[in-house]
């Protein structure tokens, strides 16, 4: 496991805000010269602390106007049931996130679809056929107060 210092964390948070900035701009933002900044960045990538870069896009403008949180409880927790469920979910492009949970449900999925018909199709044709699902609870997102990819400062 990589040990990060405050400067490494500052580089990460700065890139989380703007992953397209040049090394020169990054170095200025974190108060380093470009060469040591690039060396730190490469080390963060090599160690797996930074696992990639991506573009944040507006899902509604993309055509995926419905965001849904789906909570799933399995009937049984046998290894085969769990593995089958997780393997199937990994193959579903509608599922952006799948978290194993403590409490009343086993999994929480964050799902994006075009609309209610697409969500019905998703449940009927992708979740129900998996088998071993005991219950499905759905919450539709009607607004977002905060959404960030920037980690909090530990210092």
From TrEMBL:
Residues 4-65 form the HTH asnC-type domain. Keywords: DNA-binding, Transcription, Transcription regulation. InterPro entries: ArsR-like_HTH, AsnC-type_HTH_dom, Dimeric_a/b-barrel, Tscrpt_reg_AsnC-like, Tscrpt_reg_AsnC/Lrp_C, Tscrpt_reg_HTH_AsnC-type_CS, WH-like_DNA-bd_sf, WH_DNA-bd_sf. It holds the Pfam family AsnC_trans_reg. The keyword Transcription applies. CDD domains: HTH_ARSR. It comes from the Bacteria. PANTHER family: LEUCINE-RESPONSIVE REGULATORY PROTEIN, TRANSCRIPTIONAL REGULATOR AZLB. This is Lrp/AsnC family transcriptional regulator. It comes from Pseudophaeobacter arcticus.
């Amino acid at each position: 496991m990589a040990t990060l210092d405050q400067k490494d964390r500052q580089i990460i948070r700065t890139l989380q805000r703007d992953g397209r900035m040049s090394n020169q701009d990054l170095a200025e933002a974190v108060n380093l010269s470009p060469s040591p900044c690039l060396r730190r960045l490469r080390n963060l990538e090599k160690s797996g602390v930074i696992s990639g870069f991506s573009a944040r896009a507006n899902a509604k403008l993309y055509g995926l106007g419905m965001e849904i949180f789906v909570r799933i409880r399995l009937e049984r927790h046998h290894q085969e049931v769990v593995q089958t469920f997780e393997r199937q979910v990994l193959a579903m492009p509608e599922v952006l996130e799948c978290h194993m949970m403590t409490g009343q449900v086993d999994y929480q999925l964050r799902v994006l679809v075009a609309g209610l018909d697409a969500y019905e199709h998703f449940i009927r044709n992708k979740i129900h056929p998996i088998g071993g699902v005991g219950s499905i609870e759905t919450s539709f997102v009607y607004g977002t107060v905060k959404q960030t990819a920037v980690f909090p400062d530990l210092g």
